[in-house]
Queue: 4 jobs
Job 1
Amino acid sequence: MAQPVLRRLLFGAAITALVAAHASAQLPGLGRSPLLGGRLGGTLGASESRVTLKAEFTEPAGDSSALLFITAEIAPGYHVYAIDQGKTADGEGPKETTISIAEGQPVKLLGPFKAIQPPQTHIDQKAWPGLEMREHVDEVTWYAPIELAADANAADLVINGALSGSACDESSCVMLNLEFAAHAGTGMPIPPPTAAAEQTPASHGSLLTVALYGLLGGLILNLMPCVLPVIGLKVLSFAEQGGRARAKVFRLNLAYVAGLLSVFLVLATLAAGVQLGIANESLGWGELYTKLPFKVAMTALVFAMALSFLGVWEIPIPGFASSHHAMELSRQEGPFGAFCMGVFTTLLATPCSGPFLGPVFGYTLSQPPGVTYLVFGSVGVGMSLPYLLIGAFPSLVSWLPKPGQWMETLKHLLGFVLLATVVWLFSTLGADYFIPTLATLFGIWFACWLIGYVPAYAPMKSRVAAWVGGVVVASLVGFISFVALAPSESELPWQPYSPQALAAARAEGKTVLVDFTANWCWTCKTNSKFAINRKQVKQLVEKNDVVTLLADWSDQNDTIKQALAELNSRSIPLLAIYPADPSREVIVLPDLLTPGKVLEALDQAGPSLDQPNAAMANETSAAPFEQADAAAPEAPEFGAMPTDTAVR
């Protein structure tokens, strides 16, 4: 009797250690997040002064293909990270440089970009200890082979594209998102390839070495913090499989491995996209997490899974369901659920990188698609090895307790681990997308509650209605959240408000529109979205040469508070339009607005004045004040006795 109890206690301690390891590994990365004041900081607007781009392309000559050259001139004291900049074992590290060309152009990339000037390297000891930093300073030129369409005229062709990354000095970083336009030119001399670069896929020895490294790296990937939540779920599956027929256990683990490998196949295709001719940009390992839609989708998926683990609803996939009764898991386990679990495990693993994987994935940059598939496949097989072994020898997990109430408790604990993963995923989002994503999660929460509210034994009609209602509500909430709350490109050319900017614009005879707003003011955001930042308003602003100033009252600002008081207001929203003629009254529009009200007020204010008329208007408005000053008696000095005239 004591032995089973001791075994359960040891198992509980092991699971607790697993959960604690995951939580501690997930959350420290927040300290280095650019959103929370870590190493990466700065503003987008500063990027232009740190790095400037020049671009040109050469035409094909003889057996040589056309080449696209992108040159970055880097400000003194700053550096940019190399295209092949690696990550730490938990997937963290600086933002590597990526270059892409716009779609819909008569040009196709034939290979990855390479740097002519090698990067400077050193081992970081501060933000990411032990990570090799690969940095370009002063100037760097990248080149890539391209293919021009047969009917393209090189003399008139302009190749448009973008470069993203970060420019950093010793204390901070500025995110880069720069565009380039390449014209035909002479290019630059390309240095001969080194011995390492000349290594071809025909070198079976090197391929075998890389494959073995990939196998080992994939095996270690199972211990990375990204996948620990799903590994815990797999422990539940192993426990449930105890006592089953060996052939059935092996089939379930094969299904899990098939799901895992299918994602690696897709990732290999994305990594070789340029060489295969199906994309203008190749995506490396973990690069999916640089795409906002993917990050939001993964956040939503992990959150929905956490709610399932906590019993809010049931995932309707055999083998993936989190039943309220742990014993039911044995009746629901199926190949499709195991396959989906394998897919989900690999998607969670992609932001992580373990030992050996950096050089392995870097090796694929200069290799043909076949080698890329081999490398990704070897990593996938390495990650699959534990499950293949357990499927072949189920006795390896005989130490697990028999299915029982402990599985329900572990499932709930894993739900909280998944919620910690959601917090980590939020750290990968830009600050502007925190609120839209959070609002979307509330919609998903309601949908899961609605689906879980209808019991599994209810009529099919009721269950379908709950699903349809939940999906519709979650979709609407997500759509409205990102339309109304996410940042969008402003139609109007806003400038920051200050009394000096307002005075200078009015002195030049400009009509001035000032929008008093704040990010905590819902009505302000509604006005901005649906009444002010509209195409019709922009056309009238441009026609009348109106200066637009944005008075952001999100944080305490006495200057804006004083400006509101001068307009006899103590609240926002408020839109103030100052006519070009200083003698005219300011037009004030408070509360909820419509595009018609804004257009009418701009028409009433009229256009800006030219310089002669502006000077005349200023003199005319100033004349009454000068006459009043001349007629007024001179004020006595401070402390002097007033005269009789002053007393009267």
Job 2
Amino acid sequence: MSGERQDLEWLVEGTLGLGRLDKHSTAEDLRHFLEEFGAAVAPLTDLERELVRRMAVNGLRDIGVTAPAGLVNTALGNGNGKPASGPGRVLTFSDPEPWSEPVDGVGLLERLHDLIVEYLVLPLGAADYLTVFTVVTHTINAFPVAPYAAVLSPTHSCGKTRVLDVLNLVVRRPWLPVILTGPVLFRGIEQWTPTTLIDEAEVVRGKGDAAENIRALLHAGYRRGVTVARCVGESCELRNFDIFGPKVFAAIGKLPGTLTSRCVVINMRRRAQGEHVGYWRSRVVEPHGHDLSRQLRRWAVDHLELLRTSTIEAPDFLGDRQAEVWQPLFAVADLIGGGWRDRLVAAAHALTGGPEPGTAAAELLCDVRDIITGGGFDRIASADLATALNGLEGHPWPDYNRGQGIRSNQVARLLGEFEVRPRTIRCGDQTLKGYPVEVFRDAFERYFLPGGRSGTVTPSQPRQNAGSDGFADRNTNPSVTVRQPGESPAKTGHVTDVTVPDTLRGEKRLSAPSADDVRHAREYVIGHPGCSREQIVASFSFARWRDAETAVDALLGDPQFAYLAR
């Protein structure tokens, strides 16, 4: 056997010329070797072919060739993608031939958008997001961060798979692995940098080492340069595999919180009787998708270097992680123009306010914020805060303690995770344990985005909540019974509106608003058409409400914002 192996080594190293290749060899030298290699090994047995395949892969890897296994497997193929040694077909990807003429970016986005809305019923902002997401997949080499999208639904038949069908037509190198394993994932991404489309993504919620490994790969794979180390070959040589690339997850229910924080969440619902989409005919849509892919490829080739040097940032109302994953989309939208940045701002406002998984402490802080800001008072007793939480129908707090509701000491423990702790307060002639509004200010500033949306904190959601615009309705105006300062425990007031607390209002106004405040106010109005002046003011951070009025006044010079005048 040793003599036979030496003969095979001589075939690879000597006769076919692998020994003459080095780190300075040209692509033409490599092509010549692979062509001769494929022809020479054809007469060998399956075992001999596998042996020389491994020798060739290791030899090419030693001289620094990227993804040598794919090159060698292709050279061994029989012309139909089926390797001569072993079953199955070699996984191959190729970019489409670029469109023959320069492509206008605005028109390209509109055609993509038309394709998406023809076959999908999506929540507000999702069609614009997926349109720009598609362009980013073709220009991914320009960015240090890859966008992730999570297409979620409460049950089946809500259109998740159709979203993947549409994306499969137009994204760069679409890859839909039916059975997802860690080795399949990191080897496929290392070799081809595809756009990974994962249907039935519930596997990432699984238990055991295999599911944990997949989650770890996905958690890290949105940043360029992050690799996974694996032992390779008979010598167990330690090698790094790249796992960077755009990904889309389709699943029923929720994804793990850490993964969701890296995603833009699109919450799907089953179509109503009055909602219609085009009939999906593969033979009709595939040629159209191919033409769009060629146009996308041409636009990407023409603009890749401009995107590499782009310094465009995501809007500052997004949290750090969300701003990071949205930045490539805003770079593309800003370069294309045609109002697409404003459309993407509106999409970001809509999609970053959707339900995501969170800890009990995070959910409770969201509901406490609604109660505090809605009550217009400067303090609240611990017992009254627990009562208010238990009055939120559809939220988890009434189910605590076997249906008796959450208790004040449990509220204190959860708020303690944010360094919010009860103090001794005065309510009328009584001394009680409770919370002055000031103790929440730091937590609200740190964990909430402007406009009431959460950054790292996620709002708890009523269990059955669907708004007419396609999004789950956040109960931002809870109707709860809360004791006002000076009232006895038996005398309570009814909170029905979210208002700016009087304790934070003041007569002092800035002489001129800052540019950042005006930009925030403008982006909020764009993202919330028809919103009221009070809503814009309340969208500013908790401690800066009184500075917001001048920023709103600065918008009145634009006729489209004239309705905001006092």
Job 3
Amino acid sequence: MARQGTIRVGISGWTYPPWRGVYYPKGLAQKKELAYAAERFRSVEVNGTFYGLQRPESFARWSEETPEGFVFAIKGSRYITHMKRLKEVETPLANFMASGLLRLGPKLGPILWQFPPQMKFDQERFARFFSLLPKDTEEALALARRHDERMKGRVWLEAQGRGPVRHAVEIRHESFCCEAFIALLRRHGVVLVVADTPAWPLLMDVTADFVYCRLHGAEQLYASGYNDEALDRWAERVRAWSAGREPAERPLLLLGHMDTVWPVGTLASRPFAVHGDRAEGPGVYDMKAGLVVMVEAISRLRATGSAPRRPVTILVTCDEEAGSGTSRGLIEREARGAAAVLVLEPPLPDGAAKTARKGVAIYYLTTTGRPAHAGIEPERGVSAIVELAHQVLRVAVLADPARGTTINVGVVHGGTASNVVPERAQAEIDVRFSTTAELKRVDAALRALTPVLEGAAVEVTGGENRPPLERTDAVVELYGRVRSIAAELGMELGEGSTGGGSDGCYTAALGVPTLDGLGVRGGGAHATDEHIVVDDLPRRIDLLVRLLERL
């Protein structure tokens, strides 16, 4: 029987006032909290090392208060990761190693290096940092001896024999979702933390001889817990890692929607019909044909006895055209555990996949004036419509087509009668943006609008409806793999962007590799001439079958 790896379940820190009288027994002395936790867990993360250098005496005390076989995970210094951002960190790293870590002896576990959400993957910078990290206690001791004068009188420069010094990294930016980063980790024997959180990328690549998993909250960062089903799923993964196996492969998520923009009854007046190589009907292009591709691809695999390389999750929603108000949470929940997302929305007119989509934001600009009789005493009134006209001109200049930002004031209404100075008016504003940074710019400008007319008031409500599907490294890498597979079938699959949003915007915003526009060629989306090219249907089914077998 193969030897099982050691499983350690622990907590992040142990000094939390809200735990007293809840987790810790009422009346337990604070100085005994670590010992109490160590009797129930086999490991604890030391949070204090993240915020500042500790003293050797602290490490000695922690070691004495815990039983034999206990292991501490040490959080790396934020001075190195957040302030220096890995630039010129040789001396800070030496100071960190000299601060007393080695006094833990065999209780020294992995060092956890956490990076801020805004920090992107820089291959050269991370490669240089990883090359500085000591791999064993002798290397750590040699590095510690290079500490600077500020550490005088507070260093520990002894090692209890030669043992491994392991390192783990926790990333929080989607730019790390690439093969180059995974390869770099494996080359240096550094572990990629499996971080379960609704806010950061969830990667499960095994890159060294141990696995480090952190459960931050199933639904809400640092707040929500885990139900029995979720805990069972994580337990299954941990058992697989312990046995030296990869957990069951993360699934491919096939994403689509069954709703259309057409009202009930449209099919009676415009029934589905095929004319030569053209199939017509309400919703046939957006996106009934994509659903057919999904179903037929799965049927083909079953009929031939073939099987997908990964588990497959098919999610078909019913409110995409209305903004996915009820389904967004479900979409994001399914996407977080997926290896990749394939969206069967229509392709671009030339059949190209969509590697970028603009995000969508809807705002409501409401102006308030003072009503008055337009014929008798108009001077007493303040026109909400005139105020709105001034504001609309201000809004229009916020557009920046060069950056992919368009603004359309599409609906305007106000007033009650032609002989009344209008008290209220409102404009509905559609904002399309290619990057989150652009949305932030426009959003800040809209919310900073002030009245032009004396006595008028301005209110802006609303905001983002869909994030953009940005052409990230993860998206480009997935597109490259799909394009290569398509080429094997004799298909030349291009790529491009579009101004329309889709549910793929939500999945890409989570950092999950997403490729959109894998449906059937055609045209006339949301128009009376909506249609698909019939000959393209079997080609798209063939492609999806191959993708399910290979990705």
Job 4
Amino acid sequence: MSGGLTISGIRVIGPQKPDAEIDFVPGANLVYGVSNTGKTFAFQAIDFCLGGRDRPKTTIPEASGYTSAQLGLISDTGEQYIVERDFSSGNARVYTAPFDHGGTLSNGKDVAQTAASTNESISSVVLGWCGLGGRVTRRNKDGKTGPLSFREMSRFVCINESYMLSEDSLGRFGKGFDYSPWLSCFSMLLTGTDASGVSEVASRAIRTARAEASRLELQRLLKRCNDELAELGESTEEVQGRLKKLEAATERAIDEQSQLQTRAREQDDLIRQSRADVEDAARRSRQASELLNRFELLQQSYKTDLVRLEAIQEAGTFMSIMPEEICPTCGTELVQDGDSRDVDDSISISVQSARAEHARIVALDHELSRAIEQVRGDGLQARKDYATAKLRFDGAKDRKALELAPRLEALFNDLRDLRAAEKKAAEAQALSNQITELEARIRELDGANRQPAPKASSSGIPSYEVSLLCDVIGETLETWGYPGFPRITWDGDFDDFRFDNQLRSDFGKGYRAFLLSAFVTSLMRYCKQRQIAHPRFVVLDSPLVTLHQDVSGPATSSEDGEFIQTDMKDAFFRDIARLSEDDGQIIIFDNDAPPDDLGPVHSHVFVGPNRGGRCGFFPAAT
């Protein structure tokens, strides 16, 4: 990729105020933490220094006293710059200095806020550092052109939360635009060719010169397309026939995959329920065993008590019939100190009490015996239930592991192969379409055929290049764990992408942000692969904050966001973390934390006040 910049940091300053700053590195950068800690302010400060019209919200209490922002930038050749912009006036100056200069900036150069000024503007300076200086974009359907502005480019590299969640198409803000400079900028990023060859209504000599330049450019593109189509080795008719067959086979495979996934979810439900039944039966069996042990101990105690009470009764009966004179044990003559009737009465009372207690314990023992039988029956039933549930659990697991999982894996591989073949056929189809378009446009320029050339889309986005970008977006979404194998296409009537025939605006807010993030990161990767100039950085504000997680199944919409597969956010973070210095730079501002096992990534964590870490973007008040 030629040109490009790396953001080295953002800083806001003010008189008698400590600097508030974040540093960044090439590759992946994460800024995350709780709400209201200055993440959006930091994003707005970056956008403002890149020529944005909207000033950061300095009305928040933490921003009081801060007067300007400084953005550090490093070119691909190593030059270091700082863009400083005043919050109040919007005036800007640029310096040649490292972000961590550690002193007072000097020898700066004033630049205009907008390209309309006669002086150099923020856009022209920054685009020049990117290798995009002097580019031209088309302004309207009549062919009016003008210098590329970084505001047009920012729609593809610096995405705020409002645009993340909006239903606007890629090429339009709101409704009613026939053509927009954002579409022209997008076409330039796709092809590497700007709109300098587009002709507005002008003099015949100017139109002729422009037409000749356009014809030469079209012939160059036509030769490249013919060469690439020749490498694929198929005729247009063969490509069309094979593409139709592949699309039909893919549809069948997707339908079967959907049915198998439904069956797999049913088996998962059965596994979960069977596991719960197994655990419940095991718990009841343990309870029955514990109760049985306690009851048997109690029954043993009852038996001991009965033996003791029977002994008391026998002793009392024996003593009541014993002669009073002689001790039956030692033969000593007994001497009575009182009335023998009192002794007889005491013996009788003891015997009667023992007999009553004996009868009560016998009754309790009978009840306990019945309870023991009941508990034994419950334990037996619990063991039967356990065996039945375990059998059901094992059967469901086996069906999923031995029947459904292999078929799903085979279908996954089949779909991957079909997609690869379909991709190749679609490339050939797109090349064939573009060759037809280019030939018709050349004939029109040459005057050989005044019929309008067939167009791939009403916006004039080149069909072949956009199909290649669609492949990159699909690969990104697959890496990010997006469900299924989405077919990505460009819809020229709406100037936006379709995902399995759904426009981005058809999705809920969470998925709109997720899909837009996939687009802008894929566009940077696409430009690197095709050596097309690009700013080489992407800044995303809140790409995940509206996504809610749910493990119960596929995505469903709601007013506040979407439920997604639990691993989509983790997959997103893991892919971003793999970005190398040569791949460019991605800066993420979000509330969500990455997975714990993500590994080393340049991060800033804002924990909020009084929580034992960095409070937020602004230094904590002392």
